[in-house]
């Protein structure tokens, strides 16, 4: 509840015009949009559960420290993009910007180590990042994702997570889907690589953007995330981390690629792909759709391995691999091919019209009787005039109006009106359902 000072300020300004617009970068989702999301969730749920994943839900609010430790204190997410909640006390609370850290927190907190390993978990829900709104990028956005946590760091799990999302996109009839994949090695691999990367960028320090200069001091790998035009030539000539892996991490990555080839999943090596989160190690990947001139479009799915995440959260090491899909982006991509995605096939609709107080009372029971018989029906119980109800029936596209007046109540029948032709006929109540099923397709 707002404090007294806030309430007083609101009262003071209540006479002023209130800006009713939704917060920047957020939006309302209406009937068709909700149906499309639910369809995508069902596609995801069916494939996830086929592969043995169980659903998990975590709070939208988490302690800020969870993401500072896991995502990284110098990442854009922590530095610029998290929404903090007022009044969180000593433990500052934030709206979750991603789910992997939350899933790992839940795994550790709830003693999932004691259960059979690995745990296969999937999720759906909204995430929040204070990014610059643009096409395919919102400040509140939905994701569906999977995490395989615990057990061995087996490359087969990396390949399976990639396969699951590749097959999901394929089932949605999306074309020109490409998996960009890289390995960023172990902690020691990255330490050695960072030295070479810093040396390379320092030689070109006058040519790089302010963000890259800052990242070079705080978190050098993040310079490879830079999209600023003048930084691209320096990035293109930068050392490649694949050339700096130990034999163990090279073998792990080689096995991942062999599994992908065996599974006929097309991939491309993306040597400067590092992902924007600090908890990743070894395999990282993105799945995107090729755009015009075969250029990569927006990322649809992203993920990777995070075998050190539990350690930075203060626990013993736990292996993990996961990925998340951007729901809004995937739906936009699907709609370019199938404008009816997620929408049910339109059925003929009946509209119940009541005339008079007695008919109005009886209409509630009739409505429930028809719903129980799976008749596709709507009504507008607040309207009392015949003409206004018939007008509403036309607007909603009803093919039949069921008219119930005082006379019909006494005679135990109804009038069926064909909304296209205007023809009407009396039908006994005990034959109404049979007649409607015959006429409604």
Automatic annotation (TrEMBL):
Catalytic activity: tRNA(His) + L-histidine + ATP = L-histidyl-tRNA(His) + AMP + diphosphate + H(+)
Name of protein: Histidine--tRNA ligase
Binding site for L-histidine: 98-100, 129, 143, 147, 275, 279-280
Domain of life: Bacteria
GO biological process, one term: histidyl-tRNA aminoacylation
Family annotation (SUPFAM superfamilies): Class II aaRS ABD-related, Class II aaRS and biotin synthetases
PANTHER family: HISTIDINE--TRNA LIGASE, MITOCHONDRIAL-RELATED (PTHR43707:SF1), HISTIDYL-TRNA SYNTHETASE (PTHR43707)
Family listed: Belongs to the class-II aminoacyl-tRNA synthetase family.
Main subcellular location of this protein, as a coarse class: cytoplasm
GO cellular component, one term: cytoplasm
Subunit structure: Homodimer.
CDD domains linked to this entry: HisRS-like_core (cd00773)
InterPro entries hit by this protein: aa-tRNA-synth_II, aa-tRNA-synth_II/BPL/LPL, Anticodon-bd, Anticodon-bd_dom_sf, His-tRNA-ligase, HisRS-like_core, HisRS/HisZ
Annotated keywords: Aminoacyl-tRNA synthetase, ATP-binding, Cytoplasm, Ligase, Nucleotide-binding, Protein biosynthesis
EC number: 6.1.1.21
Organism: Candidatus Colwellbacteria bacterium CG10_big_fil_rev_8_21_14_0_10_41_28
Residue stretches making up the Aminoacyl-transfer RNA synthetases class-II family profile domain: 21-344
Subcellular location(s) of the protein: Cytoplasm
Alphabetized GO MF terms: ATP binding; histidine-tRNA ligase activity
